[in-house]
Amino acid sequence: MSGFLAGLCVAVLPLLAAGFWLGRRTARPESLGGLGTPVEHATFQTLHTASLAAPPLRAGLTEETARKSARRLRTLLGTDALCLTDPETVLAWDGVGEHHRTEIMERLAGPLESGRGEAFRLTCDTPDCPLRWAVVAPLTVDDRVHGALVACAPRESAVLVRAAGEVARWVSVQLELADLDQSRTRLIEAEIRALRAQISPHFIFNSLAVIASFVRTDPERARELLLEFADFTRYSFRRHGDFTTLADELHAIDHYLALVRARFGDRLSVTLQIAPEVLPVALPFLCLQPLVENAVKHGLEGTVDKRHISITAQDAGAEAWVVIEDDGAGMDPEVLHRILAGEVSPSGGIGLSNVDDRLRQVYGDDHGLVIETAVGAGMKITARLPKYQPGVHSAGRLPRE
């Protein structure tokens, strides 16, 4: 957060400087009717205009937010026209000369690709059009160009080039803060889904039904399954930190599979290959069990065929790779893509999207789930877990009661 605040300060300082410079040009010793000196008045007007432009931009760069902020930004620069674009189209135009839209978009390819500002002469056959020059200032967030601010004026001006660049930097900071807000919202939503996905009511019902079926015929078996159920639910509902170890997560999966085997009998076989050196690796709490549950649902429910699930955890240098593979019904890759994008949420899908979201939040976008599947071809899910990540520390094994 400190980095964003620092960036915000850096971007606001040029606005203050612009207001100060404007006020100094017209400064007189006397005040203006109690509003302060011309310097103070100009600074206030600059900050007030910027504050009016900021709220729409904090919602991201869209046609609506661009339209709401373009007039304020044009006021800041004092130009005849100003437009905001994304990489493909003009989102909003404020001022005269809107017929230059197509020409400007044709000239944006270079600045959008390089991320560098540029000024160029406009060609115009309209006699009363005052626009002859355009200044392009790219809008960047995390080194990615999201669009451009284009200021249009009657003549070339080095001052306008610099001013447009500074205002574009300020707009970029607002868009970066919008990204932060959206990321925080996605994280909160992922955490809520994680709580809901921790344990399925359907699984509870089936587990208790299986345990009840053994009470009279095999009381010792019923007792063992009841302990498995208690250990699994205790782990699932724990309130003991955001992270766990791979060993504890696999231990919980073992409890889960014991209950599943009791229900499906010899229709389910499971193979585990776990490298001992990766057992202490810390990972987000309850991020593997939903993947195993997904394999069970898509592999066994709705069929009488025998199915196999393999769980592999191996050392891969700076990472631990966990692979969960089943030979079940598989899934249409397009449907899978929509599940991970949050567009649809069929039974079992919430586990995949939830785990993918949390891994990306903790480790970065390049550590999302890698899923290979096709209809009738089963599913293979790979999770890459960095062995060492700042802020990722297991709270340790829970003491048994």
Give the secondary structure arrangement, pairings included.
Elements: H1 2-25, H2 38-57, H3 63-77, E1 81-85, E2 90-95, H4 101-107, H5 109-114, E3 118-121, E4 133-141, E5 144-153, H6 158-197, H7 201-214, H8 219-236, E6 243-245, H9 246-264, E7 268-274, E8 282-284, H10 289-300, E9 307-316, E10 319-326, H11 333-340, H12 349-363, E11 370-373, E12 379-386
Parallel strand pairs: 7-9
Antiparallel strand pairs: 1-2, 1-5, 3-4, 4-5, 6-8, 9-10, 10-12, 11-12
Helix pairs in contact: 1-2, 1-6, 2-3, 6-12, 7-8, 7-9, 8-9, 9-10, 10-12
Please tell me about this protein's structure:
This protein is an alpha+beta fold. Helix content is about 50%, strand content about 20%. It has a 5-stranded antiparallel β-sheet, sandwiched between helices. A 5-stranded mixed β-sheet has the order 7-9-10-12-11, covered by helices on one side. α7 (about 200-215) runs antiparallel to α8, α7 (about 200-215) crosses α9 and α8 packs antiparallel against α9 (about 245-265). It is elongated and about 95 Å long. The protein starts with a helix and ends in a 15-residue tail after the last strand.
Strand count, sense and barrel status of the largest sheet are: 5 strands, antiparallel
What is the beta-strand fraction?
15-25%
The string of secondary-structure elements, in order, is HHHEEHHEEEHHHEHEEHEEHHEE
Tell me the number of helical segments per DSSP (H or I, 4 or more residues long): 12
Task: Give the distance, in angstroms, between the N- and C-terminal Cα atoms.
Answer: 40 Å
| Alpha-carbon Rg, integer | 30 Å
Mean pLDDT equals 80
Q: Which strand order do you get reading across the main beta sheet?
A: 2-1-5-4-3
The outline comes out as elongated
Low-confidence stretches: 1-14, 16-33, 397-401
Helix content: 40-55%
**Count of extended strands:** 12
The helix-and-strand class reads: alpha+beta
